[in-house]
Amino acid sequence: MIRISVWGRALSDSYLKQMTQLGADCLDFNSGTAFPGMKEQGYPDLDELLRIKKRVRSWGLDMNRVTLPDITEKFMKDQPGGEQELENTCHALRVFGEAGIPIARQRFAGDVFPDLMTRYRAVHRGGYLSRGESLALTEKRSETPTLEELETWWSRFCDVYRQLVPIAEEYDVKLAIHPSDTPNADTPLGCLGFHRVIDAFPSKNVGYLYCIGTRAEVGGSALVLDEINNYGRKGRIFMCHFRNVRGSLATAQAFEETLLDDGDMNMFKILLELRRIGFDGCLNPDHIQPIEGDSPGVSLGLAYSIGYIKALLAALAALP
Q: What is the DSSP track for the chain?
């Protein structure tokens, strides 16, 4: 069954109550330091993690996805302290496995080329603002890594996954990698590099946190539908970031994020394709735009997004 996950950034009773009332099902944790123990010792404290999980469950919510401690440039460039990062993330995955967390994401430094893009605030209907990025507007583009440098990055990535995958298999945790965002050409986890992950690690526990918005930034809905079909029939889409965009690097050398109904993609068609390939994970409406009337602790954009997805799921269930 497809469910809805939201961010677990705030764990106050008010927030958990609000998410339950809106109809969310699960929480996702997007920071490598989200849990007690991570900042102090480099990995989460199991007892504290279990207490958090129990509290989340008391509101009828599940913990869907967590983020492992970051792999920074220290490890990726073989600097002092890098091996400790690998040790910490392996220890963290064991702790999450013992706690019964189903999905874990690992972040890697160097998977994007941030200096290529000119960033701006895009204005949409009624004046709501969103993230916009343009390659075309960038006059002086920085040098991107050479093939040799990209292969070195990939070698270090594989060093990490060779340690993580056996742990994921032992505890039956799904390792979900997110695509490079911004998805410029030759980013390590872009159109070609994203494929390499499951080619190199054919374990059923290795797959994708498939970000619909990020992949649409490359080539729109046609690319998204093709990739869902490709990765989905292999059983490698573990969850989705569910968001819409206007434009793409292919069509405009730029893109702008939008509310779910306000971009180029028909999100119901995306959902139909997910159903066709048997997807049964969570949809997370990430990158929520602020809307007039928002206040601390209250995101109207999030409430709108949850309601929109629930309506799509109801329409999907009504189909034969």
A: --EEEEE-S---HHHHHHHHHHT--EEE---TT-STTHHHHSS--HHHHHHHHHHHHHTT-EEEEEEPPPB-HHHHTT-TTHHHHHHHHHHHHHHHHHTT--EEE--BTTS--GGGPEEEEEE-GGG-EEEEEESTT-SSPPPPPPHHHHHHHHHHHHHHHHHHHHHHHHHT-EEEEPPPSS--TT-TTSTTHHHHHHHH---TTEEEEEEHHHHHHHHHHHHHHHHHHHHHHTT-EEEEE--EEE--TTTTSEEEEE-TTSSSS-HHHHHHHHHHTT--SEEE--SPPP-TT-BTTB-HHHHHHHHHHHHHHHHHHH--
Return d(Cα 202, Cα 206) in angstroms, integer: 7
Residue 274's Cα: distance from chain center in Å?
A: 16
C-beta atoms surrounding 53 within 10 Å: 17
- Per the rule left: phi > 0, alpha: psi between -120 and 50, beta: everything else, 235 is left
Cα(77)–Cα(81) distance, rounded to whole angstroms?
Answer: 11
Q: What is the pLDDT of residues 200-240, one digit of tens each?
A: 999 999 999 999 999 999 999 999 999 999 999 999 999 99
* CB distance 184 to 219 below 8 Å: no
Length of the chain: 320
- The neighbouring-strand residues paired with 71 are 108
pLDDT at 10 over 90: no
Q: Which of 181, 1, 217 is nearest to 105 (CA)?
A: 181
Domains observed in the chain:
3-113+142-244+279-318 (3.20.20.150)
Closest-CA residue to 106 (of 67, 156, 73): 67
pTM for the structure as a whole: 0.95
Instruction: Tell me: pLDDT of 298 over 90.
Output: no
Q: How far apart (Å, rounded) are the C-alpha atoms in residues 95 and 47?
A: 10
Distance, in Å, from the CA atom of 282 to the CA atom of 267, rounded to the nearest integer, reads 15
